[in-house]
């Protein structure tokens, strides 16, 4: 057998592996897009043997493969994920999600300028052969820009993989991002162009594909206008957000009005925040907007959703409980509709968390009462600490200890405390209780 037949035979033996890689990548992509509040449909596939063999034979005429290793270095889409965005205007945000989540090795945007060579040696959209491209050029001159998308070659991050999935980390995956309309047109074009046994397309067929592309581009403009109309409705102060996508859209637009570069901002778990707000009947622009206006802009360290939750929870044990319930439901969806029996360790942790949160709420209430910064409607806890330190209410040691306890509190509240033992939580609760006593004594309270 030749080098192509050998490669395809080996790929057939590994097909289940590549299909699992693609499925895993799609799952990660779906979770991250949903968390960021981006509406999209994600699908995945391992490349079919027939398409792989045809692609290799087309490329072999120009590249003259000499080994399976050369083929492996040339073919990047054995595992593929397709992301179809509802709103093409969210392409930049989708790219940010991909770059924040995966190890991006190469990115290519379509369409490319005329005559631009590809330094990575990747053929044009869907690996159209030069013969096909020349055939189209001879038969029809395009009026519209054609395929519009961004393709990313990525590696899966180890932190998103279980022990049994660790071997997927070295597999290259191609993620294609385009609008839902563009993906549909792309499929039609690809299937028509790649039918060599049925003859080449006629000039009329190329012209019709071009016309359809024009309709797709017009449809994308309509989708962008639809998104803008939805944004205007969401901005209505008393219209409740219908889902976390609308909440995320509102936050983006509100921050944009404050001059924040949203492509650099981390939104965090807007799905958890929405569930909490809906439960508390606070999922409206009038309830959320004032808190967005006073966020500290360190979004890379403290995501927007976490900061908003912190501001809206402050000083209320009931709200803390509701937020932790929303966080637990997001992490363990099965618990929404079933009763699960926990271990004794789970019970100990739950009691320790409750003890810590109870003391923390009392501390927040006390510091809010003392701080009262002028002109600030919803001061953050960090802002309160700075104010009280400047006023001399807190000593340097107390200020440092409270910031350390605040970091622990953030891990507990935002679902990152799995490695914190019940003993550590109880010790932290005692620290907070002692801090309460010291601050109260300093104010002359009994």
Word description of this protein:
This protein is an alpha+beta fold. Helices cover 57% and strands 8% of the residues. It contains 17 helices and five strands. It has helices at residues 3-13, 15-35, 49-63, 68-74, 91-101, 130-139, 180-193, 203-234, 244-257, 270-279, 285-292, 304-313, 317-331, 344-371, 381-390, 396-413, 422-442; strands at residues 40-46, 79-85, 103-110, 149-155, 173-179. The model is unreliable at 116-124, 126-130 and 334-341 (pLDDT under 50).
Could you give me the name of the CATH homologous superfamily of the largest domain?
Beta Polymerase, domain 2
Strand content: 5-15%
- Helices and strands: which structural class? alpha+beta
Radius of gyration: 27 Å
- At the first level of CATH, the class of the largest domain is Alpha Beta
Largest sheet: 5 strands, mixed
CATH architectural group of the largest domain? 2-Layer Sandwich
DSSP helix count?
Answer: 17
> Which strand order do you get reading across the main beta sheet?
1-2-5-4-3
Q: Classify the oligomer.
A: single chain
**Fraction of residues in helix:** 55-70%
Q: How many domains is the backbone divided into?
A: 3
| Cα distance spanning the termini | 89 Å
GO biological process, one term: guanosine tetraphosphate metabolic process
Domain RelA/SpoT: 44-200
Pfam families: RelA_SpoT
Protein name: RelA/SpoT domain-containing protein
């Amino acid at each position: 057998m030749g080098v192509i037949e050998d490669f395809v035979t080996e790929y057939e033996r590994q097909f289940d592996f590549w299909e699992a890689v693609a499925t895993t990548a799609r799952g990660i992509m779906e979770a991250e897009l949903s968390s960021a509040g981006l509406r999209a449909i994600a699908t995945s596939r391992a490349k079919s043997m027939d398409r792989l063999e045809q692609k290799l034979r087309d490329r072999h005429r120009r590249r003259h493969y000499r080994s399976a290793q050369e083929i492996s270095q040339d073919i990047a889409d054995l595992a593929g994920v397709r992301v179809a965005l509802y709103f093409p205007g969210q392409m930049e945000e989708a790219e940010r999600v991909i770059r924040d989540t995966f190890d991006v090795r190469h990115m290519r945007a379509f369409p490319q300028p005329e005559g631009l060579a590809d330094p990575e040696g990747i053929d044009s959209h869907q690996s159209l052969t030069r013969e096909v491209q020349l055939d189209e050029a001879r038969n029809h001159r395009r009026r519209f820009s054609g395929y519009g998308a961004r393709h990313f070659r990525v590696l899966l991050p180890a932190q998103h993989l279980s022990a049994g999935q660790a071997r997927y980390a070295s597999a290259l995956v191609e993620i294609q991002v385009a609008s839902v309309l563009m993906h549909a047109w792309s499929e039609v074009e690809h299937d028509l162009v790649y039918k060599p046994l049925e003859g080449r397309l006629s000039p009329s067929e190329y012209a019709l594909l071009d016309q359809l592309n024009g309709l797709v581009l017009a449809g994308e403009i309509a989708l962008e206008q639809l998104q803008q109309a939805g944004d205007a409705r969401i901005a209505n102060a008393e219209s409740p957000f219908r889902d976390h996508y609308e909440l995320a859209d509102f936050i983006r637009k509100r921050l944009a009005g404050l001059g924040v570069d949203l492509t650099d901002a981390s939104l965090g778990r807007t799905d958890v925040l929405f569930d909490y707000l809906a439960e508390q009947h606070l999922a409206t622009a009038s309830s959320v907007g004032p808190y967005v206006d006073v966020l500290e802009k360190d979004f890379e360290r403290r995501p927007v959703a976490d900061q908003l939750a912190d501001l809206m929870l402050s000083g209320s044990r009931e709200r803390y409980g509701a937020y932790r319930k929303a966080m637990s439901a997001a992490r363990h969806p099965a618990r929404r509709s079933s009763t699960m029996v926990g271990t004794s360790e789970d019970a100990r942790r739950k009691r320790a968390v409750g003890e810590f949160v109870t003391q923390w709420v009392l501390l927040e209430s006390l510091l809010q009462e003392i701080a009262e910064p002028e002109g600030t409607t919803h001061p953050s806890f960090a802002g309160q600490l700075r104010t009280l330190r400047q006023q001399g209410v807190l000593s340097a040691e107390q200020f440092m200890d409270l910031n350390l306890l605040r970091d622990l509190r953030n891990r507990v509240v935002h679902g990152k405390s799995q490695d914190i033992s019940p003993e550590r939580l109880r010790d932290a609760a005692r620290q907070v209780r002692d801090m309460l006593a010291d601050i109260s004594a300093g104010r002359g309270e009994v």
